[in-house]
């Protein structure tokens, strides 16, 4: 078995301590002691504590988003075209599989993700959003292909809702059947995306009818 590098040991120690204690309480001294390295090694590889935190997230999110994009390409390559459910599944399933798997890494990273949301670290949120914005755009574009004529801004906002539901589901420790849970969440999200378009069309029709009635009454 290959020995972990100094960089990997630092990342493993930081991830565990950040997940257990939170970003601010966990000190670089604790991280270096757990990793068996000196402080200079942290500064050499990462530069700062904030950069180390981002690197911890990047290590997991890079792999997760690569899996998502690979499944998305498979969905888009289907001869009869991608279905909305296939696109959503490419986004949802890899995340649930990672967080619900037997690997302790997934559970630990899920703890860290929940702490990041609870701590409201605006710098971290902004950095992650900026770094992975291309992934969200790719999925928003793919969803738009399956729902032609929809407002792109509305679709991106609704994808944010899906992300929220996914994050909550990932954090629910009692859920075990990953495939079934992913399918349920995909059906829920797809129904919302399709239904919101129907309601918007109905609202537009009602507004137009009301406008016509007003004009007819006043003429």
TrEMBL record:
Signal peptide start and end residues: none
| Positions of the HTH tetR-type domain | 4-64
Q: Which Pfam families match?
A: TetR_C_30, TetR_N
This protein is called TetR/AcrR family transcriptional regulator
Note the Gene3D superfamilies from the entry: Tetracycline Repressor, domain 2
Its transmembrane ranges are none
Checking InterPro entries in the record gives: DNA-bd_HTH_TetR-type_CS, Homeodomain-like_sf, HTH-type_TetR-like_transc_reg, HTH_TetR, PsrA_TetR_C, Tet_transcr_reg_TetR-rel_C_sf
- Keyword annotations for this protein? DNA-binding
Q: Whose protein is this, by species? A: Wenzhouxiangella limi
GO MF assignments:
DNA-binding transcription factor activity; transcription cis-regulatory region binding
Family matches, as PANTHER family? HTH-TYPE TRANSCRIPTIONAL REGULATOR RUTR, TRANSCRIPTIONAL REGULATORY PROTEIN
Q: Where is the composition biased (Polar residues)?
A: 203-219
- Region described as Disordered: spans on this chain: 199-219
Q: Which residues bind DNA?
A: 27-46
């Amino acid at each position: 078995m290959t020995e972990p590098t100094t960089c990997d040991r630092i990342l493993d120690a930081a991830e565990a301590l950040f997940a257990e204690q939170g970003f601010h309480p966990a000190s670089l001294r604790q991280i270096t002691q757990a990793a068996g390295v000196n402080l200079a090694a942290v500064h050499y590889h990462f530069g700062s504590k904030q950069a180390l935190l981002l690197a911890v997230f990047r290590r997991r999110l890079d792999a997760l988003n690569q899996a998502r994009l690979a499944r998305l390409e498979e969905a888009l390559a289907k001869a009869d075209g991608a279905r909305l459910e296939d696109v959503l599944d490419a986004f949802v399933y890899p995340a649930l599989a990672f967080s619900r798997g037997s690997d302790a890494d997934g559970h630990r990273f899920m703890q860290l993700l929940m702490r990041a949301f609870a701590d409201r670290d605006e710098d971290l949120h902004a950095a992650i959003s900026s770094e992975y914005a291309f992934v969200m755009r790719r999925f928003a574009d793919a969803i738009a292909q399956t729902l032609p004529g929809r407002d792109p801004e509305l679709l991106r906002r609704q994808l944010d809702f899906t992300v929220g539901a996914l994050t909550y589901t990932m954090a629910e420790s009692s859920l075990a059947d990953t495939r079934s849970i992913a399918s349920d969440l995909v059906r829920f999200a797809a129904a919302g995306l399709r239904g919101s378009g129907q309601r918007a069309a109905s609202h537009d029709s009602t507004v137009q009818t009301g406008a016509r009635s007003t004009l007819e009454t006043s003429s």
